[in-house]
Specification:
Blueprint lengths: L6 H22 L4 H30 L6 H12 L2 H8 L4 H21 L6 H18 L6 H11 L6 H28 L2 H9 L4 H13 L1 H13 L1 H21 L6 H14 L14 H14 L4 H46 L4 E4 L9 H9 L8 E3 L2 E5 L2 E5 L3 E6 L2 E6 L4 E5 L5 E8 L5 E8 L7 E6 L4 E3 L2
Parallel strand pairs: 1-2, 1-10
Antiparallel strand pairs: 3-4, 3-7, 5-6, 6-9, 8-9, 10-11
C-alpha cells in the first residue's frame, strides 16, 4: 500500500531512495550542469507529486470523503505526465515552476496535518507556514493567492476546524497577507507595472483565458489548436461561451434538488482566486503547475462518487498530454537546432564584416542570446556582453515554443518598422524602456501586428543592427 496510518513514516521511507539518487547524481554528473539540473527538476517533480497524493489523502480524512485507490493512481499519473511538467523538466529556465509547485503542495500538506492534529504545536506550525510561503513567493509569484484560499478555508469550513486552530489559521492569514502585500508593492514599484497594466487593459479577455488555460492544461492535444482558433475568431468564441453558460445554468436549475449551491459558489470563487496572479500573463502550455495541481485535486473531491467519470477524464487527459509532449519534444529539438544555426551563422558573419557589438532588432524564443551564443561558439557557459537584445519579441500564437515566421522589417534609420505577414505571428514589448515606441498597431489576436520603434541611446556608433530571417542574418546598418 502507498499509504499507512502514519503518513510521516511512509513519507520519509518513500523519499529515502530518491534522496540517495539525488546526491549520487550530483556527485557523479557534476561535470554536466545541464543534465544535473534537468535531473534535479525531475526529482523535484517526483517529490511534489508524492506530497500531493499524501495531501489529498489527508484532506479526504478531514472532509470525511471516501476516495478509492484508483483515483489516487490516476491523479498521480496525470500530474506526472502533464505537459507543463514535461516542459519544465526539459526547459531549465522554467524549472522554478516545478519548485514553486513543490512548495505549494507542501504548504497545503502542512495545513492539513495541523488540522488533523498531526502537528501539535501551533507556534511551530505558524513559523513553518510563513517560512514556506515566503520562500514560495520569492521563487515565483504564482502562490500569491494563498492567503485568500486560507480565508475561504476558515469561512466555509469552520465547522471542520477546532476553535483554537481557527485562531492560529487567522493569525497565519494575517502574516501571509502582510508578505503578499509587501511583495506586490515592491514588484509594482520596481518591475511589474507593464504586466499589471496589460492585464487590466485586457480584462475582458480573461474569462476566455481561464477556460483556454484549463483546456490546454488538461487536454493540450488538440486543445492548443482549438484555443488558437478561438483567439483568431473571438466573436464565435464569445457566442459559444454564452451558449455554454446557458446550458450550465439550465442544468443547475433542472437539478436543483441535488445541486449544492454553496459548493458551486465556492468552486467559482476558488477558480477565480487560483488564477491570481497567473491571469496577468498570456495563456499557454506553461506556468500552469499550480492550476493543474489544484483543479485535478478538486475534480477528485467533486466527483469522488463518480469513479467511471474520473477514469474517463484522467485517461483521456493522460493520453492527450503524452501525445502533445512528443510534439513539444520535436519542437524543442528543432528549436535547439534553429538556435545553434543562428549562433554559428552570426559567429561567421562577425568574423567577416561586423563591428565589435551587434544589436538584435527583434527576437523570438529561439533567437540567439548572449548565453546561447557563448555556449555554442565556446562550448562553455557564459555571457557574451557584445550581443544586445531588443526587448521587442515576435511570437507564434499557436505556442510560445514555435518561433515566429514571416516577419518583415523596414529600416529608415534611426527608426525600424516590424510587420507581421500572417495572423499567427504577433509582437510584444517585454521591456517598455528598451526602445522608444513611435507607433503600434493592434490586431484581432493578441499583441501587435505592427510596431514602429527607435532603439535606445545605449546603442552607440560601434554597433551593427542585425536580425535573423530564419536562414541567415541580415545587417541593416
Amino acid at each position: 500500500m502507498i499509504f499507512s496510518n502514519n503518513p510521516n513514516e511512509k513519507f520519509f521511507l518513500f523519499f529515502r531512495p530518491i534522496t540517495y539518487l539525488y546526491f549520487y547524481t550530483i556527485y557523479h554528473m557534476a561535470h554536466n550542469n545541464a543534465v544535473v539540473m534537468k535531473l534535479m527538476s525531475l526529482v523535484v517533480h517526483i517529490c511534489s507529486t508524492t506530497i500531493l497524493l499524501f495531501t489529498i489523502k489527508e484532506y479526504s480524512e478531514l472532509f470525511k470523503i471516501r476516495t478509492s485507490c484508483i483515483m489516487f493512481i490516476l491523479l498521480g499519473i496525470f500530474v506526472s505526465f502533464n505537459l507543463d511538467a514535461f516542459i519544465s523538466v526539459l526547459w531549465i529556465s522554467n524549472s522554478n515552476e516545478l519548485l514553486s509547485g513543490l512548495l505549494y503542495v507542501s504548504i497545503f500538506y502542512l495545513i492539513v496535518l495541523f488540522l488533523n492534529n498531526k502537528i501539535a504545536s501551533s507556534l511551530i506550525f505558524g513559523i513553518l507556514l510563513n517560512i514556506l510561503f515566503l520562500i514560495s513567493i520569492l521563487i515565483k509569484q504564482n502562490s500569491a493567492h494563498l492567503p485568500l484560499l486560507l480565508l475561504i478555508l476558515l469561512f466555509f469550513f469552520k465547522d471542520k476546524i477546532e476553535p483554537g486552530k481557527r485562531k492560529t489559521l487567522l493569525a497565519s492569514f494575517i502574516g501571509l497577507s502582510i508578505i503578499v502585500v509587501t511583495f506586490i508593492l515592491l514588484n509594482i514599484l520596481f518591475y511589474y507595472q507593464s504586466h499589471i497594466i496589460n492585464g487590466l487593459e485586457n480584462i475582458y479577455k480573461k474569462p476566455f483565458a481561464i477556460i483556454g488555460t484549463l483546456m490546454i492544461s488538461f487536454f493540450p492535444f488538440p486543445g492548443k489548436n482549438i484555443y488558437s482558433y478561438f483567439i483568431l475568431h473571438k466573436l464565435f468564441a464569445g457566442v459559444l461561451l454564452f451558449i455554454l453558460l446557458g446550458v450550465v445554468i439550465w442544468f443547475i436549475k433542472t437539478k436543483n434538488k441535488i445541486t449544492n449551491y454553496k459548493n458551486v459558489f465556492i468552486y467559482i470563487i476558488i477558480t477565480i482566486l487560483i488564477y491570481f496572479p497567473r491571469i496577468l500573463a498570456q495563456s499557454g502550455e506553461r506556468l500552469n503547475i499550480i492550476q493543474i495541481v489544484f483543479f485535478s485535486s478538486m475534480l477528485i473531491f467533486i466527483f469522488y462518487e463518480k469513479r467511471v467519470f474520473i477514469l474517463i477524464v484522467f485517461s483521456f487527459a493522460v493520453l492527450s498530454n503524452i501525445i502533445e509532449s512528443q510534439n513539444v519534444l520535436a519542437t524543442i529539438q528543432n528549436g535547439y537546432r534553429y538556435t545553434r544555426n543562428a549562433d554559428m551563422a552570426l559567429h561567421e558573419m562577425r568574423n567577416n564584416q561586423l563591428k565589435e557589438k551587434v544589436y538584435v532588432l527583434w527576437r523570438n524564443v529561439w533567437t540567439t542570446t548572449p548565453y546561447s551564443y557563448y555556449f555554442n561558439t565556446r562550448n562553455d557557459f557564459g555571457n557574451d556582453t557584445t550581443i544586445i537584445l531588443s526587448e521587442i519579441a515576435a511570437f507564434n500564437i499557436r505556442s510560445w515554443l514555435d518561433y515566429a515566421r514571416d516577419v518583415k522589417i523596414i529600416s529608415a534609420y534611426p527608426n525600424y518598422r516590424l510587420v507581421t505577414a500572417n495572423n499567427h505571428t504577433y509582437f510584444n514589448i517585454t521591456n517598455q524602456s528598451s526602445a522608444q515606441i513611435i507607433a503600434k498597431k493592434g490586431n484581432d489576436t493578441r499583441g501587435y501586428s505592427e510596431i514602429l520603434f527607435k532603439t535606445n541611446n545605449i546603442v552607440g556608433e560601434d554597433v551593427n543592427y542585425v536580425y535573423y530571417n530564419d536562414s541567415a542574418w541580415v545587417k541593416l546598418r
